[in-house]
C-alpha cells in the first residue's frame, strides 16, 4: 500500500488546489455584473442552440478521437516496457522501436492526408 | 528484480509468409501517405500481388524444406502441415480476390460523403477513390494467415481482430447501393465485436480453468484439474460461439446474408473464400488440439449445430430472390457440410487425419468455386450497378451463353454434381463422417444437399429456359483481371472435379502430421 | 485491514455511482457517474495487487474512453434523447430474460471458482506485477504484441476512410483571406482591420464598456451588440451608446443594407 502514498498525496494536493482556486475567486476578482457574463461565451459570441434530437455533428472528430485512442494504447505497452527496461535489454528496445515505428506509419498517413487539419 | 530477461527466439523463416504480407501492408499505407493520388493504384497492385505471390512461394519453400515439428515464436504460432496447406489456399484465393478488387469501380470514391450528395458525385467525377482497400485487404489476409496457425488463444484473438477489422471497413465501401453497404458494415461490426467479446470471455474462463492460454496446456489440463468443470464448460461454449460466428454456423448465421449482399462483391468473394478457410482452420485447431479430450462433451453440440446449419442454409436459400443473398445462404449450408467433417473425428489419429484432409480438400474446392461465382456476379449489370435480383437473370443463357454456362457450372459444383470439385469435397467429408460413426449426420447432409441442388437448378432453369426481359441486364466485357479470375476458378473447379488426386494427396500429406501440439 | 476498509468504502461509492449512472436523467451526469465507477474500479484493482490493470483502467478507460463519451455528448447535444420505441415487439422482455439467464449462468460458474482460494498469484507476481507482465509481453507474446500494431494502423486507416473528406479545392490561406478583405475594402469601403477591443482608452476593460476614441467620444465599432441588447432590455444602456445605435439603424435604413460588424462574415 505504501506504493500508493505519493499518489494519494498528489490527489489531496490536486483537490486542495481546485477548492482553493474556486473558493478564492469571488473575494479577489473585480465584480462588474452583466447578463452577458452568464453566457456560455463571455466574449459576446452568441451560442448557437443545438437542434432538437441532437442533429448532425461533424464526423471529423472521429479521426482525432481514433488517433488519440491509438496512441493511448501505445502508452499501455510502453508502461511495462519502461518498468522492465533494464532487464529487457537491446531486444526489448528493438521490439519497442519496431512497434512505435509501425504505429507512426499510421500517424504519417493521417498527417499527410490532412486528417489533422480542422477546417 | 535483477537478472536480464532472455531474448525470445523467433523462427523468422517459419513466420516469413505472414511477415511478408504484413510488411507489404505497411508499405501500402506508406504509399497512401506519400504517393500522389494518380500513382497510388499503379504502385499498390504490384506490391499487393507480389507480396501474396512471395508469401505463397515462401510457404511452398517451407513444405519442400520439411514441415516444422515445433511451434514457432516461443510457442505462439504453430506452422504445421495443416497450417501450411491452409496458408497456401488462403494466399491463392486472396491473390485471385485482389485481381477482382483491382476493378476499382466497385469501390466508393469518397466514403465520408453523404450517399447521393453532390459531393459524392463530384468525388466520383474527379476520379477519386479509396486505394486504401489494398493495404486493408493485405492486413485482413495477414490476419487470416495467423488465425488458423495461432497456438494460443491470445494470439488467436489478436489474429481474429486483425482479420475482421479491415473486413468491417471494406464492407462499407461499395460504390453503388451505399446505404445497403453501410448497413452491412455496421451490422457486421456490431455483431462481430459482440462475438469477439464472447471469444475473449471464453478465453478468460479457460485460463481460469487451465491456468494457461496455450492450446496444448489446456489439453493437458483436461481431466487433471478437478472441481472447476463449470468454468471449463462455460469457457468452451463461449469460445465456440466466437468461432462459430466467424464461419456463420446456424444460430449465429444472421449476419451473413446481409453482409455478403451489402459488401462490394470482390470483398464478398474474399470473405466467402479466405475468411471461411481461416475460420475453419482455427475452429479445427481449437477443438482438436485444445479440446480433443473433451469431444464427448462438445461433439453432440456440434452435431446439433451442423444439422441446424445445413437445414437453415439449404431451406432459406430457396426463398431468396437476390443472387448475392442466395450465395450467402449457400455458403452457410456449405459451412454446415464442413462441420460434419469437424464432428467426424475420433480417438484414432488415422480417423482424425482422414477427416482433416477431407475438410482441407473441401475448403480448396469451395473457395475457388465461390470466388468464381462472385466474379460472375460482378459482370452482370444493370444501369444502377450489378443486377442482383434473380428475375433479372432470366434468360441470361440466351443473351450470353458462355457466362451463363460458366455460372451454371459453378452452381452445379456447389450442388456437388459429379465431375465438379464440389462432388469430391462432399464425398470425402461424408465418407470420413461415415467412418467416424456420424452416419445420421451424413443422411441429413445428403438431404440438405438435395434441397440445395433444387435451388441451384432453379437458377439454371431460369437462366436458360425463360425468355430474357426486354430491358434485361447487360453483361459487361470483363477486365483482364476479372476474366483471369473466372478462368482460374473454372479451371480449378474442372481440375479438382476430374483429377482430384494431386490436391487430395497434398491434403492427405498435410493432414498426416495433424496439428502439432 | 486497510484493504477491507478500502473495499467497503469504494463498494458503497461505486454502487451509488452506478445507480446514478442508470437513473440520472441527464447524459452528462451519467457520464460523470461512469467516471466515478471506473475510478473506483481502478482503485479496487490497485488494492488487489494489480497495479498494471489499475493503470490501464485509468489511462484507457477513465482517461480516454470517458473523455470520448463527453466529447460525443458535447457534439451530439447535451439535451438530446433517444427514441424509446421498440422496433421489434417483445424484444426488451426477451433481452432482459436472456441477460438474466446469462448472468445467473456466469454467476454460478465464476462464483463456484471464486469460493476456492486463488492459486499461483504469488508465483506470477514474483518479480513484481508490471515487470512480470513485461517479461511475458516481450518473450512469450512478443509476436502478438507486434501484430497488435497492425490493428492500430487499421483503426487509424478506418477512421480516415470513413470520416475524412478530402478537400476538392485548396484551403484558403491567411494571405487569401487578407487579400479578400482588402478587395472588399476597395469595393464597399469596409474597414479591413480588426475591431477595437472593448474598453480601449477607457476606465475599464470589461466587455460592456465601449472603447473611447482619442477625442473622448465612444467608438461605434467597439460597441458589443450582445451586451447592448441585454442592457437595452434592462434600461441600463448608456445614453451615448444608445445614440450611436440609433444613428446606425437610421443610416442602415437609408442605405438599404444591413451593416454588420466587420469580421463576422470573414471568419465563417
Number of helices of chain A: 3
Coarse shape of chain A: flat
Strand order of the largest sheet of chain B: 2-1-3
| Count of extended strands of chain A | 0
Sheet with most strands of chain B: 3 strands, antiparallel
Main sheet: strands, sense, barrel of chain A: none
Q: Name the assembly state.
A: heterotrimer
> What proportion of the residues of chain A form beta strands (DSSP E)?
under 5%
Kindly state the percentage of residues in helix of chain A.
Answer: 55-70%
Which homologous superfamily in CATH is the superfamily of chain A? Answer: NADH:ubiquinone/plastoquinone oxidoreductase, chain 3
Summed over residues and divided by their number, the pLDDT of chain B gives a mean of: 90
Count, helices of chain B: 20
User: Quick one: how many beta strands of chain B?
Assistant: 3
The poorly predicted ranges of chain A are none
SSE order of chain A, as H and E?
HHH
* End-to-end separation of chain A: 49 Å
**Over all CA atoms, what is the radius of gyration of chain A?**
23 Å
**Whole-number count of domains of chain B:** 1
Explain what you see.
The complex is a heterotrimer of chains A (119), B (517) and C (268). Chain A is mainly alpha-helical and 119 residues long. Chain A has helices at residues 5-28, 61-83, 85-112. Chain A has one domain (2-112): Methane Monooxygenase Hydroxylase, Chain G, domain 1 (Up-down Bundle). The model of chain A has no long low-confidence stretch (mean pLDDT 81). Chain B is mainly alpha-helical. Chain B contains 20 helices and 3 strands. In chain B, a hairpin with a 2-residue loop joins strand 1 (380-382) and strand 2 (385-386). Chain C is mostly helical. Among the domains of chain C are: 1-79, Up-down Bundle (Four Helix Bundle (Hemerythrin (Met), subunit A)); 174-267, no CATH class. Chain C is 66% helix and 0% strand. Chain C is built from 11 helices and no strands. Chain C has helices spanning 2-23, 27-47, 51-76, 91-115, 121-124, 129-138, 142-163, 174-188, 225-234, 239-255, 264-267. Chains A and C meet through helix 2 and helix 3 of A and helix 3, helix 6, helix 7 and helix 9 of C.
Layout of helices and strands:
The complex is a heterotrimer of chains A (119), B (517) and C (268).
Chain A: H1 5-28, H2 61-83, H3 85-112
Chain B: H1 12-34, H2 37-65, H3 81-101, H4 118-125, H5 133-149, H6 153-171, H7 178-210, H8 215-221, H9 229-247, H10 255-262, H11 265-290, H12 295-318, H13 323-343, H14 349-379, E1 380-382, E2 385-386, H15 396-399, H16 401-415, H17 421-435, H18 439-465, E3 474-475, H19 480-498, H20 501-512
Antiparallel strand pairs in B: 1-2, 1-3
Chain C: H1 2-23, H2 27-47, H3 51-76, H4 91-115, H5 121-124, H6 129-138, H7 142-163, H8 174-188, H9 225-234, H10 239-255, H11 264-267
Helix pairs in contact in C: 1-2, 2-3
Amino acid at each position: 500500500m505504501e506504493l500508493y502514498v505519493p499518489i494519494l498525496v498528489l490527489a489531496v494536493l490536486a483537490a486542495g488546489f481546485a477548492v482553493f482556486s474556486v473558493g478564492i475567486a469571488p473575494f479577489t476578482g473585480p465584480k462588474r455584473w452583466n447578463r452577458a457574463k452568464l453566457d456560455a461565451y463571455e466574449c459576446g459570441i452568441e451560442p448557437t442552440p443545438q437542434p432538437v434530437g441532437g442533429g448532425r455533428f461533424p464526423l471529423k472528430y472521429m479521426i482525432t478521437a481514433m488517433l488519440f485512442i491509438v496512441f493511448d494504447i501505445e502508452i499501455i505497452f510502453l508502461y511495462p516496457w519502461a518498468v522492465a527496461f533494464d532487464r529487457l535489454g537491446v531486444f526489448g528496445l528493438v521490439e519497442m522501436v519496431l512497434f512505435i515505428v509501425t504505429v507512426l506509419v499510421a500517424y504519417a498517413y493521417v498527417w499527410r492526408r490532412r486528417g489533422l487539419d480542422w477546417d | 528484480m535483477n537478472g536480464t530477461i532472455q531474448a525470445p527466439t523467433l523462427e523468422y523463416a517459419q513466420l516469413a509468409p505472414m511477415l511478408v504480407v504484413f510488411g507489404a501492408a505497411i508499405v501500402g499505407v506508406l504509399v497512401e501517405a506519400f504517393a500522389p493520388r494518380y500513382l497510388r493504384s499503379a504502385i499498390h497492385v504490384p506490391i499487393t500481388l507480389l507480396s501474396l505471390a512471395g508469401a505463397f512461394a515462401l510457404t511452398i519453400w517451407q513444405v519442400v524444406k520439411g514441415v516444422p515439428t515445433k511451434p514457432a515464436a516461443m510457442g505462439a504460432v504453430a506452422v504445421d502441415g495443416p497450417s501450411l496447406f491452409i496458408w497456401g489456399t488462403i494466399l491463392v484465393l486472396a491473390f485471385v480476390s485482389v485481381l477482382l478488387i483491382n476493378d476499382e469501380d466497385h469501390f466508393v470514391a469518397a466514403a465520408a460523403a453523404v450517399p447521393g450528395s453532390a459531393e459524392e458525385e463530384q468525388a466520383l467525377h474527379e476520379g477519386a477513390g479509396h486505394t486504401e482497400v489494398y493495404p486493408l485487404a493485405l492486413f485482413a489476409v495477414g490476419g487470416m494467415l495467423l488465425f488458423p496457425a495461432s497456438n494460443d488463444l491470445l494470439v488467436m484473438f489478436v489474429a481474429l481482430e486483425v482479420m475482421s477489422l479491415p473486413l468491417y471497413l471494406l464492407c462499407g465501401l461499395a460504390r453503388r447501393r451505399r446505404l445497403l453497404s453501410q448497413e452491412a458494415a455496421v451490422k457486421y461490426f456490431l455483431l462481430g465485436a459482440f462475438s469477439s467479446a464472447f471469444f475473449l470471455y471464453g478465453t478468460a474462463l479457460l485460463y481460469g480453468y487451465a491456468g494457461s492460454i496455450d492450446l496444448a496446456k489446456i489439453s493437458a489440463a483436461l481431466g487433471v484439474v478437478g472441481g472447476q468443470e463449470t468454468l471449463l464448460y462455460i469457457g468452451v461454449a463461449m469460445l465456440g460461439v466466437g468461432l462459430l460466428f466467424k464461419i456463420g454456423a446456424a444460430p449465429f448465421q444472421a449476419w451473413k446474408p446481409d453482409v455478403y449482399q451489402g459488401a462490394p462483391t470482390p470483398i464478398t468473394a474474399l470473405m466467402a473464400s479466405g475468411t471461411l478457410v481461416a475460420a475453419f482452420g482455427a475452429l479445427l485447431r481449437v477443438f482438436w488440439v485444445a479440446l480433443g479430450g473433451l469431444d464427448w462433451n462438445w461433439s453432440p453440440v456440434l452435431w446439433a449445430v451442423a444439422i441446424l446449419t445445413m437445414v437453415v442454409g439449404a431451406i432459406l436459400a430457396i426463398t431468396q430472390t437476390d443472387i448475392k443473398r442466395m450465395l450467402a445462404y449457400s455458403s452457410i449450408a456449405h459451412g454446415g457440410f464442413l462441420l460434419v467433417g469437424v464432428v467426424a473425428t475420433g480417438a484414432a489419429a488415422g480417423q482424425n487425419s482422414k477427416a482433416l484432409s477431407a475438410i482441407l480438400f473441401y475448403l480448396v474446392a469451395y473457395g475457388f468455386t465461390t470466388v468464381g461465382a462472385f466474379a460472375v456476379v460482378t459482370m452482370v449489370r444493370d444501369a444502377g450497378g450489378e443486377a442482383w435480383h434473380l428475375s433479372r437473370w432470366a434468360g441470361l443463357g440466351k443473351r450470353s451463353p458462355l457466362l451463363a454456362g460458366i455460372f451454371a457450372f459453378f452452381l452445379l459444383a456447389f450442388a456437388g454434381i459429379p465431375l465438379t470439385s464440389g462432388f469430391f469435397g462432399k464425398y470425402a467429408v461424408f465418407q470420413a463422417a461415415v467412418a467416424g460413426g456420424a452416419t445420421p449426420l451424413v443422411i441429413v447432409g445428403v438431404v440438405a444437399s438435395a434441397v440445395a441442388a433444387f435451388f441451384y437448378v432453379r437458377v439454371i432453369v431460369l437462366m436458360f429456359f425463360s425468355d430474357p426481359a426486354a430491358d434485361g441486364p447487360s453483361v459487361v466485357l470483363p477486365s483482364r483481371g476479372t476474366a483471369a479470375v473466372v478462368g482460374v476458378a473454372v479451371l480449378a473447379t474442372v481440375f479438382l472435379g476430374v483429377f482430384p488426386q494431386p490436391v487430395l494427396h497434398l491434403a492427405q500429406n498435410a493432414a498426416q502430421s495433424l496439428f502439432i501440439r | 485491514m486497510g484493504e477491507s476498509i478500502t473495499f467497503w468504502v469504494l463498494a458503497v461509492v461505486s454502487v451509488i455511482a452506478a445507480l446514478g449512472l442508470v437513473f440520472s436523467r441527464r447524459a452528462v451526469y451519467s457520464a460523470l457517474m461512469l467516471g466515478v465507477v471506473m475510478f473506483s474500479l481502478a482503485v479496487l484493482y490497485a488494492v488487489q495487487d494489480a497495479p498494471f490493470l489499475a493503470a490501464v483502467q485509468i489511462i484507457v478507460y477513465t482517461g480516454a474512453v470517458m473523455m470520448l463519451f463527453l466529447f460525443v455528448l458535447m457534439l451530439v447535444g447535451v439535451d438530446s434523447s433517444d427514441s424509446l420505441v421498440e422496433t421489434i415487439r417483445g424484444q426488451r422482455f426477451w433481452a432482459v430474460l436472456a441477460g438474466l439467464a446469462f448472468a445467473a449462468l456466469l454467476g454460478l460458474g465464476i462464483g463456484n471458482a471464486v469460493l476456492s482460494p486463488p492459486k499461483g498469484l504469488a508465483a506470477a507476481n514474483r518479480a513484481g506485477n508490471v515487470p512480470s507482465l513485461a517479461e511475458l509481453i516481450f518473450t512469450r507474446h512478443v509476436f502478438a504484441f507486434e501484430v497488435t500494431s497492425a490493428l492500430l494502423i487499421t483503426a487509424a486507416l478506418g477512421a480516415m476512410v470513413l470520416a475524412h473528406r478530402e478537400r476538392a479545392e485548396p484551403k484558403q490561406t491567411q494571405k487569401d483571406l487578407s487579400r479578400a478583405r482588402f478587395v472588399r475594402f476597395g469595393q464597399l469601403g469596409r474597414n479591413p482591420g480588426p475591431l477595437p477591443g472593448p474598453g480601449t482608452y477607457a476606465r475599464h476593460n470589461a466587455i460592456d464598456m465601449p472603447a473611447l476614441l482619442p477625442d473622448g467620444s465612444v467608438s461605434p465599432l467597439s460597441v458589443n451588440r450582445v451586451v447592448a441588447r441585454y442592457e437595452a432590455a434592462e434600461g441600463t444602456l448608456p445614453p451615448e451608446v444608445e445614440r450611436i445605435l440609433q444613428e446606425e439603424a437610421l443610416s442602415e435604413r437609408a442605405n438599404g443594407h444591413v451593416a454588420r460588424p466587420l469580421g463576422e462574415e470573414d471568419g465563417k
